[in-house]
Every structure is written in structure tokens, then in C-alpha cells.
Design a protein that fits this description.
The protein is an all-alpha fold and about 110 residues long. About 80% of the residues lie in helices and about 0% in strands. The chain has one domain (about 5-105). Helix 1 (about 5-25) runs parallel beside helix 4 and helix 2 (about 35-75) runs antiparallel to helix 3 (about 80-90).
Length: about 110
């Protein structure tokens, strides 16, 4: 389980941003009438929030992986390829956040 309090907050906010925020933003769809400015502001704020939380969470993960990877490379230089792959995996979180933000913004 997650032991660090900051890691719990980062994981929880990422989960909230990827699940709840798009649902809230897309729930206020109008039925052909002119869109209300408050719904537009909520939609674009939700898109920005999903991208922001995804980027912060990936940065946190990459910082932890990078610190551990530096120590690992000092002891075992042959593990460099695995560490590059592990360093690239959190970028998927940012890409998913970008896709969600794009979907919310163009809905």
C-alpha cells in the first residue's frame, strides 16, 4: 500500500482528475441552445485541471524514479536501459491527461 502521505495525495488527485472531473465537465451539456458562459468556464477549467494534475503527478513519480535510478546506476551500470524505460513510463500519465483535456475542451 501507499505509505507516503504526499504520494497518497498525488495518486488520489490523479484518480479524481481522470475520473470525476471529465464526468462533471461533460454533464452540463446544453441541448442545442447557446452555451452558458459558466458551463464553458467549468469545462475549460476542468480541462486545465486534468492536465495540471497529470503533469504534477508524473513529475513526482519521475523525481522518485530518477533519485532511485541515480543510486542504482552508481552500483550497477548495466541497469541503465531498464531505468530509461522506468523513467519514460510516467510520461504516459501526462499523455492521458492531455487526451482527457483535449476531449473535455472539444466536447
Amino acid at each position: 500500500m501507499i505509505k507516503n502521505k504526499l504520494a497518497k495525495v498525488a495518486f488520489g488527485s490523479t484518480f479524481l482528475a481522470t475520473v470525476a472531473v471529465p464526468a462533471i465537465a461533460l454533464a452540463a451539456e446544453s441541448s442545442g441552445a447557446a452555451p452558458d458562459w459558466r458551463a464553458e468556464v467549468a469545462r475549460y477549467s476542468a480541462a486545465g485541471l486534468s492536465m495540471c494534475v497529470a503533469a504534477i503527478s508524473a513529475g513526482y513519480a519521475q523525481a522518485k524514479i530518477g533519485a532511485a535510478g541515480a543510486g542504482t546506476l552508481a552500483e550497477r551500470p548495466e541497469a541503465g536501459t531498464n531505468l530509461i524505460v522506468l523513467q519514460a513510463l510516467p510520461e504516459i500519465i501526462v499523455l492521458l491527461g492531455f487526451v482527457i483535456a483535449f476531449m473535455i475542451g472539444t466536447a
